[in-house]
Design brief:
By secondary structure, this protein is of the alpha/beta class. Helix content is 42%, strand content 12%. Helix 4 links the parallel strand 3 and strand 4. Helix 2 crosses helix 6, helix 3 runs parallel beside helix 4 and helix 17 packs parallel to helix 19. The radius of gyration is 24 Å and the shape is globular. The two termini are 24 Å apart. Bound molecules: cobalamin (B12) and iron/sulfur cluster (SF4). Cobalamin binds next to helix 2, strand 3, strand 4, helix 6 and helix 7.
């Protein structure tokens, strides 16, 4: 790998890309796609699954903050990538990837070297936790830090400028194949997390330091308003914001200042963000609702997980208080902790179900390289033989078990995880109904509040509930069981009563939604229209960009180009069939040896520190030279 050199030549052209579609090819985990809900959260909910492609914000941030002309590609096909490489003379091609998409990177690098042999290849993103031994043959530069500063150094551009925030919305959720016309804004307030949970990739990537993109609550607020203005200029309607900051509520002073600004502004916001129980416990539920949080992703992990982030308010109280104010929760649970056996997992899951999150994620306890947990299992030689010999990196996705466990075999734990996703759906019903229920509660409880901001929030929630009514109808008909169907019917009746009469359009939508649900079921079964579409953006281009590319393209299928999408789907099916009929030894096994991942890193400098309580039997303690190889 080349040392980073400084360029004297200005305006070198940069191509930044995500990994290529299609996702879900042979050997690829079905959670590894371009969506969050459908792949990891509502994956067992069939037609009720929420569909939303999330763009790769890292490359939008990089493109916005460099001076060189740049093109950004979100989810190109290989053909589209080749076309781009041939169309221009790129000096650099940067790829964002994660561990489980590294096989795609290897293929892309072959294409880049063939079609743009002079381009230097930069690898960035959390896939770079892989050791140099694996990455070096595929890269000229590897970025294992905050990427804006890295790119500015590489291109010899001005450093230390304030970070600019790109206008990088994503389409609002598509449900039963019906695409809402609104968009969801995005803002990253900072990277990394000081909590240092032993398995956490992002926390240890930044060595347990928080890297703020916005330092004060006022800056965050102003930026959200600025993004809203940009949306207005483009004629976009933003229904909400996704707000990336690992534990927003932990930084009490900043979050409080943000709250003051929202109060001053007097307009309710609609945010989805991340917050630990510890962070959330520093604020009252009213304050969290006033800040504008609609959905909070919070960790449930496991009852005895022992992470400091789980300390704080009683969970039952926290969830109930937030739900009462229309704040829904996305709870993530981990299975496969050393203390868990099947009964224990089920007990903990029962508790989670009683908390009634609107959205649930259940992942297997596993370790990314450069985390303390990874060090521990490597040192203890606990990787299963196949992962020691040649780990399949495509399965670094939270849906496969990599180590020996005292109580579970890998197939047992993976089957249990699958069962829990199914149970979540069967016990609590479709997430869309759960969400509308929380919004409706929020509306009813806040509409007479003496706090004007909360009253305004109630109004927004009511609009949301009204517009979501057709979404409940398929749940009344096709819900997973009688209880779920009657729960949906009860909610429909309550909302209907509150609404009074239904407009003709609303009636039509209520009739149309089951038909769309049937079409969705068919498309899901045939696996057509499931892939994202290419979003291509030019930055500082010398050629005149004729028209703005619609962000909705990201959702693929009918939002992009249905004929092309269908042709691609069919092509993929033929390839899959070919692989099935003429199985050959896995190319991955033949050509690529990844055992460096399950060996201890060569340098003692890479040691990392975790935060398990010292009383926890799984606590590995502070880094110690005695554990160096
Ligand atoms: C949004 C998100 C998604 C989105 C979008 C993914 C994407 N391609 O960006 C969706 C929902 C699609 C997604 C899916 C998955 N994700 Co995800 N995702 C995230 C999340 C929450 C935020 C990422 C983000 O946008 N941050 C904001 C941007 C601005 O910051 P950034 O990404 O850190 O980028 C900065 C630097 O890292 C660097 N950088 C990044 N890329 C590049 C590229 C170049 C060339 C350079 C120079 C620098 C650079 O510069 C940027 C600016 O400083 C992170 C967790 C987190 N909090 O970071 C997980 C995370 C990235 N996801 C992860 C995983 C595992 C997945 C999945 C495999 C899901 C699964 N089954 O487990 C799939 C894979 C999908 C895919 N196609 O790659 C892991 C990756 C761990 C790893 N080492 O592999 C993370 C870290 C979560 C975690 N803690 O485990 N994800
Ligand atoms: S709280 Fe733990 S898991 Fe969550 S981001 Fe921070 S270190 Fe990672």
């Amino acid at each position: 790998m080349e040392e980073m050199r400084v360029n004297s030549e200005p305006a070198r052209k940069v191509l930044l890309t995500s990994v290529c579609r299609p996702f879900g090819g042979p050997g690829e985990g079905d959670s590894v796609g371009a969506e969050l809900f459908h792949a990891q959260v509502t994956r067992a909910q069939g037609i009720f699954s929420l569909r939303q492609v999330i763009r790769c914000w890292a490359i939008d941030y990089l493109a916005e903050n460099i001076e060189a002309p740049c093109v950004v590609l979100h989810y190109p096909s290989e053909r589209e990538l080749i076309r781009e490489l041939k169309a221009d003379h790129y000096h650099y091609v940067g790829i964002n990837f994660v561990v489980s998409t590294f096989h795609k990177v290897r293929r892309m690098v072959t294409l880049i070297r063939k079609h743009a042999p002079h381009a230097k290849i930069i690898l960035g993103g959390y896939g770079t936790v892989l050791p140099d031994e694996l990455l070096a043959p595929f890269a000229d530069h590897v970025c294992r830090e905050e990427g804006i500063g890295f790119m500015q150094r590489l291109l010899d551009e001005d450093k230390g400028k304030p970070i600019l925030h790109p206008y990088a919305p994503i389409p609002a959720i598509r449900l039963y194949s019906f695409q809402q016309p609104t968009k969801v804004g995005h803002l990253t307030a900072g990277l990394g997390c000081p909590n240092g949970c032993d398995f956490c990739c992002t926390s240890h990537f930044f060595k347990r330091k928080y890297v703020p993109f916005l330092k004060t609550g006022r800056e965050i607020y102003e930026e959200i308003r600025a993004i809203e203005r940009k949306a207005g200029e483009r004629g976009d309607v933003l229904s909400s914001f996704i707000f990336i900051d690992e534990d927003f509520f932990l930084y009490k002073k900043r979050a409080r200042e943000f709250l003051d600004c929202v109060r001053e502004g007097g307009k309710p916001l609609s945010l989805m963000g991340f917050g630990s129980v510890r962070g959330l416990s520093q604020f009252s539920a009213d304050e969290i609702a006033e800040m504008g949080f609609d959905t909070i992703w919070t960790a449930f992990e496991g009852v005895e997980a022992g992470y400091g982030k789980l300390d704080g308010k009683n969970l039952e109280e926290l969830y109930a208080d937030l739900n009462w104010r229309g704040v829904s929760l996305l709870s993530s649970m981990i299975v496969g902790f050393p203390y868990q056996d099947s009964n224990r997992v089920r007990e903990e899951f029962d508790r989670l179900m009683k908390l009634g999150p609107s959205l649930t994620q259940i992942l297997i306890y596993f370790a990314f390289p450069r985390t303390p947990f990874h060090e521990k299992v490597v040192a203890e030689k606990r990787y299963l033989p196949e992962y020691q010999r040649n780990p399949d990196l495509r399965r670094w996705d939270g849906f496969s078990m990599h180590f020996e466990h005292p109580k579970f075999s890998a197939p047992e734990l993976e089957a249990l995880q699958k069962e829990l996703y199914k149970q979540d759906f069967e016990r609590l019903g479709p997430s869309i109904v759960r969400l509308v229920r929380v919004w409706f509660e929020g509306y009813k409880n806040l509409r007479h509040s003496s706090n004007p901001l909360l009253r305004a929030r109630a109004e927004e929630k009511w609009e949301l509930v009204r517009s979501s009514l057709p979404g409940i109808v398929p749940a009344m008909l096709f819900g997973p069981n009688r209880k779920a169907r009657s729960g949906a019917r009860a909610l429909f009746r309550e909302v209907r009563k509150e609404m009074g009469s239904l407009s003709a359009v609303a009636r039509l939508k209520c009739i149309g939604s089951p038909i769309l649900a049937i079409w969705t079921s068919l498309a899901n079964r045939l696996r057509v229209f499931q892939q994202p579409g290419l979003l291509r953006i030019e930055h500082r281009s010398r050629t005149v960009v004729k028209r703005q590319v619609s962000v909705m393209r990201l959702q693929g299928g009918f939002q992009a180009n249905p004929i092309a999408a269908l042709a691609e789907d069919l092509n993929q099916k033929v390839r899959d069939l070919w692989t099935h009929v003429f199985p050959k030894r896995d190319r991955f096994e033949e050509e690529f040896l990844a055992s460096a991942v399950t060996r201890l890193p060569d340098s003692g400098d890479d040691r990392v520190e975790g935060t398990r309580r010292s009383t926890d039997p799984a606590y590995i303690g502070p880094p110690s030279p005695s554990r160096a190889p």
